[in-house]
Amino acid sequence: MHTVSISDLRANLLAYMEKASKGEHITVTTNGRVLATITPPMDKRESAKRRLDELAATARIHDVTSPTGAEWDVMQ
């Protein structure tokens, strides 16, 4: 993580944006106080895969092919 003052960010914005696009996190400060954090763009494909993996870990699949033994109204 890199910390930069707002005035330095303004003077070198393109350079800091390039660093962020390469994966670096940048904290922007003003008068010693954190103003913002610039983070790299999120990889949507990787994020979606991670979420699906989380769901798959908790999913339960029961017997879906055997008869239930109960008649449904739609079967009459």
Description:
It is rod-shaped and about 75 Å long. Helices cover 39% and strands 20% of the residues. The protein starts with a strand and ends in an 18-residue tail after the last helix. The relative contact order is 0.13. The protein is α+β, with helices and mostly antiparallel strands and 76 residues long. The protein has helices at 6-11, 13-21, 44-58, and strands at 2-5, 26-30, 33-38. The longest helix is centred in the C-terminal third of the chain and has 15 residues, at 44-58. The protein has a three-stranded mixed sheet with strand order 1-2-3. This is Antitoxin.
Nearest-angstrom radius of gyration? 25 Å
Strand share of the residues? 15-25%
List the strand order in the largest sheet: 1-2-3
What structural category do the secondary elements indicate? alpha+beta
Count of DSSP helices? 3
Poorly predicted regions are none
CATH homologous superfamily - what is it?
A: YefM-like domain
Query: Can you tell me the CATH class?
Result: Alpha Beta
Pfam family, one: PhdYeFM_antitox
Protein name: Antitoxin
Organism: Ectothiorhodospira haloalkaliphila
Function: Antitoxin component of a type II toxin-antitoxin (TA) system.
